[in-house]
Amino acid sequence: MEENASSLVSTSSSHVLLLIRWMHTVFERGVIDKPLPSIHRLFMQENEPLQLSPIVGDSVNQYLPYSQSADPLGAVLEFARESESSISQALLYLTMIVKSGVNISTPTFTRFFTIVASNKLDGLPDANILIRSIILSLWQRSLGRQDLQSLIASIHGHFSPLISQSLVSGENFLVALSIIRQSLAACLLICGCERASILAAGMVDINEIQDLPSRRKVTVRGSTLEDPIIIQPEILTALQLYLQSSLDDVSCLVAKFFNLFLVESPFLESFEIDNFILRNGKLIALCIWTTYGIQQEDLGVIRTNLFLRSIVVDSEPLQEIVQGCLDPASNCIQQRLSGLNRLFHIISDVTSPAFNVEGRQWRSSVTCIFHFYFSSLWADPSVRISVLKPTAFLPRSIGGNQNGC
User: Fold this and answer.
1) Are strands 52-54 and 63-65 parallel, antiparallel or unpaired?
2) Measured between alpha carbons, how far is 329 from 331 in angstroms, rounded to an integer?
3) pLDDT value of residue 78
4) Which residues of the chain have pLDDT under 70?
5) What's the rounded Cα separation, in Å, for the pair 372 and 319?
6) 327 and 246 housed in the same domain
7) Which domain of life is it from (predicted)?
């Protein structure tokens, strides 16, 4: 019986080695990014009960666990540990496996992250591939996978300094931006947001998911959403750091994320939205203020939604930002002009049909914006501010160029 078991394990190990060699061949031929629908047959679905394989010639009908007889994912993990250069290749294998419809558990993703985090070289490209495999997995099945958000939080907790540095220096900028975008999209999927809305917002590109197997063909078990719906604090802390780069691309991604989470998350109750805003008012206010300095059409409704939903709950964080921006003692004329320009855009949005929060009395909450705008316009001692007075009350089309700094 022991000889039969050893023979079976040896045979299975040979199969795993053959699988790795086959993946090498696929990689060398440049088709690693293509899904292989039949490959899922080689992998035990990690959320399923342990499969048992009968041992030939066993008179007492004992069984050997499948996971002991063949572990293709374990083989990929071992390959990733071989050297720092093999990590990226192993992660690409993981992406191909996910795209082929194989369900990967959070513990397995976590093991890959542990390897990526231990890499002494620049780990951002590898982190980007790992995040990509996570969101591809979530796109196929998202409900009941809240534990993946903790992993995403760990990734940003580890890599946020490098990501922030890349945003500022420009080195690996697109990689850093991709990590942020895909991470936020993954969180939205976990929270139950519609895939169509995530695509429409540009958080996921259609080309990234077009080759995935039909979601109807993916086995879904235990797909329930647990309460409460939250965003991990480590992720929010990282977003605060990324916003400090003052880059339009980053600000737009964060604004779209908050808007989708607060407006389109189907499982969030109104009191949960209010609590989230109260807990994260400074971050949301910073995001709002930043986006009002960006001239981009698709941000119009998004920033209006965020502004109103935030200010009717807690206006103090935004007021603090505005006061600091308009203070002549600590800001140059260009900064104060930029602040006034942003206030002007907020006031101009009042006439927009989107400037409304259903069931909320918002008018009294926005009076502070008018107060800041007009009082600063008349009270600022700068002569250049005074130049704005003749045109400040005119429509944008008449009053000239109102672009910020």
Assistant:
1) antiparallel
2) 6
3) 86
4) 1-17, 26-27, 29-38, 40-70, 215-228, 359, 380-405
5) 9
6) no
7) Eukaryota
CA–CA separation, 242 vs 248, rounded Å?
11
- The residues, any chain, with a CB within 8 Å of residue 380's CB and separated by 6 or more, are 326, 328, 336, 386
pLDDT of residue 227: 61
Are 176 and 315 in a shared domain?
no
Residue 279: partners with Cβ closer than 8 Å, 6 or more residues away: none
Question: Do 293 and 156 share a domain, yes or no?
Answer: no
Give the per-residue SS3 of 13-56.
Answer: HHHHHHHHHHHHHHHHCCCCCCCCHHHHHHCCCCCCCCCEEECC
Residues 242, 287 within the same domain:
no
- Residue 79 inside a domain? The answer is yes
pLDDT score recorded for residue 380: 67
Question: What is the pLDDT at residue 350?
Answer: 84
DSSP tag of 120: S
Number of domains in the chain: 2
What integer pLDDT is reported at residue 200 of this predicted model? 95
Q: Which domain holds residue 250?
A: 15-31+71-212+229-268
Q: Model's pTM, two decimal places?
A: 0.83
Q: Dig out the tokens for 56 from the structure.
A: 């030939």
Query: CB under 8 Å to 145, separation ≥6 — which residues?
Result: 106, 138, 190
pLDDT of residue 393: 46
- Residue 241, token pair as written in the block: 């750091």
Do 188 and 261 meet the contact criterion of CB atoms below 8 Å apart? yes
- What does the block give as tokens for 328? 């002549």
pLDDT of 10: 45
Answer yes or no: is 361 within a domain.
Answer: yes
pLDDT of residue 219: 46
